[in-house]
Amino acid sequence: MTTSLSTGGAGLGTAWGQGTAERMLRDAGFESIDIKTVEGDPFNVYYIATKP
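and the corresponding structure tokens:
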């Protein structure tokens, strides 16, 4: 159970998936979204997002 549920959050945890994360960023007004990985780190994806 994620702690965000206790404060009215969506309770997404850490396993959103790239599609959900990108959709949520776009819904929040971000237009430029760059998705990066780091060699040697197979578990994380890094998002670089900017608003206009």
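(Above: one complete record from the training split.) The chain has a mean pLDDT of 90.
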